[in-house]
Amino acid sequence: MEDKLKIKISIADRVYPLTINPRQEEGLRKAAKKIEAMIKQFEQSYAVRDKQDVLAMCALQFAAQTEQKDIDKSEEMQEAEDKLRSLNELLQKHMAS
Fold first, then answer.
1. Where are the domains of the chain?
2. Is there a contact between 16 and 28 (Cβ–Cβ < 8 Å)?
3. pLDDT of residue 1
């Protein structure tokens, strides 16, 4: 069993103590850096001062990215299935003749 690791992550001027599996640390730290960068970008681009609004905009942006990736994967899977179906039909016709 892996030992738990206690870390502190800072987001929007608040520190969040977390107890995690060591293998999660890199991902969490990278995510926190991305959030901080996005916060800075929103604050500069839209002159938003309320951290709650900025965090909501960040959450929406990340959720939209995740959803778009899922949509893209689904479309790619459908294309692959269609191509495989076509290949299978060609093989069936070839084998029947």
1. 3-94
2. no
3. 56
